[in-house]
Amino acid sequence: MKEGDDARIDSAFTIYYIVVNIGSTFSMLAMPWIKDHWGWHAAFAVCCAGMAPGLVNFAIMRRTLGAIGSAPDNLPVSWPRLVAVLGGGAAFAAATVFILQHKVVAVSCVYAAGVAILGIFG
Questions:
Q1: Which residues lie closer than 8 Å to 8 by C-beta, 6 or more apart?
Q2: Which of 30, 34, 57, 67 is deepest in the core (most CB within 10 A)?
Q3: E strands of the chain, at which residues?
């Protein structure tokens, strides 16, 4: 692929994103069945075996797309932004723990998400 071949690059990334979603769907469907028959170790081993070809493909094809795209960002770390991101992550983690420990709150969040989705797409 060459720098100016945008259509082929767009097609490749579209296929990549489709395959990732298909693979995650198969994983979500197969993992409980594998866990019930052979245990958690086997279920995660199967997922690992599925990821291995992807990592090998990435290692082999990395040079192909290496020169395509924007240059890496070499700017220094913005400390206020880093603190804001870490603080937001900690707040999100605390909220998640709270929701998961209170079933009524979790069910309310699911219903609220359903209403929001219907409001947006319905």
A1: 1
A2: 34
A3: none
Q: Could you identify the residue written with the tokens 């699911």?
A: 110
Task: Give the 3-state secondary structure percentages of the chain, helix then strand then coil, rounded to 5.
Answer: 80, 0, 20
| Contact present, 9 and 67 (Cβ < 8 Å) | no
Across all residues in the chain, what is the average pLDDT?
A: 86
Residue 93: enclosing H or E segment and its boundaries? helix 79-101
**Residue 2 — pLDDT band, cuts 50, 70, 90?**
low
| Tens digit of each residue's pLDDT (9 = 90 or more) over 32-87 | 999 999 998 998 898 888 888 888 888 888 777 766 666 767 788 899 999 999 99
> What backbone torsions phi and psi does residue 65 show, to the nearest 5 degrees?
-105, 5
Amino acid at 112: A
Domain regions of the chain by residue span: 6-61, 94-122
